[in-house]
Design goal:
With 227 residues, the chain is of the alpha+beta class. It is built from ten helices and five strands.
């Protein structure tokens, strides 16, 4: 069966279908069609996509495709082949990044994860680590950067990213350029405030870590705020 795009309803066309129903509702060949965009005179983009899958048998084999193999398929050419290879490589890297997620189960783990990024900075950096239900790091985000002496943590951004990543828990952290990790009164007030906000959002606020030169302070360990 040959596919002629102009005879299809709008909802049957891959890009329109993706926009309306979401990318997860596209078949394998429809995903390839979105990537390569066009077919050739006697072969629609869907026909070309089905031919690509048939040539490689399945997606596992397609992952190992070479430029020469792709260019051998009539209608692909160098540009489309390179685009497809780039998408395959991007998917491979995303998978590897997920595979290598660090796990944080304690204040010590969090400090080791943050230490070299924060301890020598001359300005205060406020950072959030977002975790899934088993303590794996989903992402780390710099929320705000302040002067040499102070900054105000932006709790709205901290919560926004937690919701975006569907995080189960979060660890807030910042450095003290002075090198002394002991919390200020403002640090304590902000931690208590953020704990209250996250409780209302059903996000576990796991700790607030302050990073000094060669040491750190954990609000959870020291129980200045009950977490």
């Amino acid at each position: 069966m040959k596919y002629v795009l102009k005879e299809m309803s709008l909802d049957e066309k891959p890009r329109a279908k993706m926009k309306r129903f979401g990318v997860s509702n596209l078949s394998d060949y429809e995903l390839i069609a979105v990537i390569i965009k066009t077919g050739i005179k006697d072969k629609s983009v869907l026909d070309l996509s089905i031919e690509i899958l048939s040539y490689f048998t399945n997606l596992s084999c397609l992952e190992e495709a070479t430029l020469n193999e792709l260019e051998a398929i009539k209608g692909l050419g160098e540009a489309k082949s390179l685009e497809l290879l780039a998408c395959i490589e991007l998917g491979r890297r995303i998978y590897k990044a997920k595979e290598a997620r660090p796990v944080i189960r304690s204040a010590s783990d969090a400090y080791k994860y943050l230490e070299f990024d924060l301890k020598n900075l001359k300005q205060e950096h406020f950072v959030c680590i977002y975790l899934n239900a088993v303590g794996e790091v989903i992402a780390k985000k710099t929320i705000s950067i302040g002067s040499a002496n102070e900054t105000s943590g932006d709790f709205k951004d901290a919560i926004k990213w937690a919701l975006k990543f569907s995080a189960t828990g979060m660890i807030y952290a910042h450095n003290h350029p002075s090198g002394d990790p002991l919390p200020s009164k403002q640090d304590c007030q902000f931690t208590a405030f953020l704990k209250k906000i996250t409780e209302n959002m059903d996000i576990m606020f796991l700790d607030h870590i302050i990073v000094g030169f060669d040491s750190y302070f954990s609000f959870k360990r020291n129980e200045l705020v009950k977490l």
